[in-house]
What we know:
Elements: E1 9-10, H1 16-26, H2 36-56, H3 64-88, H4 93-118, H5 124-148, E2 151-152, H6 160-177, H7 179-221
Parallel strand pairs: 1-2
Amino acid sequence: xxxTTDNQKEGKWFLREAEDKFRNKxxxxxxxxxxxxxxxxxxxxxSGLIVLFGWLARGNxxxxxxxxxxxxxxxxxxxxxxxxxxxxxTGLVKWGYYMDHFLDFLFLxxxxxxxxxxxxxxxxxxxFILLTLSCSFLVSVYLSFVSSNKLNISFLRMGPTExxxxxxxxxxxxxxxxxxxxxxxxxxxAGAETIILFLMVYKTQKKLWxxxxxxxxxxxxxx
Length: 223
């Protein structure tokens, strides 16, 4: 993330250690003409292509392979953009905070829209619910960051990397088994997202509550 420093980041996910090693090894070799904001802006391209390939997948489900490829490319540019700015001391803190988060929302929306184009039109309300739930995770993370100055981007040892892997696996299953079978799973996916979101919000608000109460107690005993 372009907008945060290392001491503001929290969270543990399964692939974090391997991911950090990979990023630190690659960063010094990125060509000098590529700047951190170039990588950030690439999410616009990946998001647009995801929608296009989702639309094309209506005629040939194998276009989902390219949707998965765009998800992987977005992972790479998102992984390196902030790290490149820190490595070269060229990071854009306020711009990065705004654009990185806005483009995260745009990227997530493009994926939901691509799936909505692929499935029958009668399921529009289901995808609206899925979009609302998915974006609620982003809202919770960003509000928590504003409240605590800590960006916790993982929950239950799952982070953005595992989320992208899950989407690529979902695309693979769609290609193999087709849309009709996946259509039956949509209510269960929405239900699972609802439960996880509830647990995440509950845990976050409980943590912030304790911090507020500790601060109040500290004020009471201060001379």
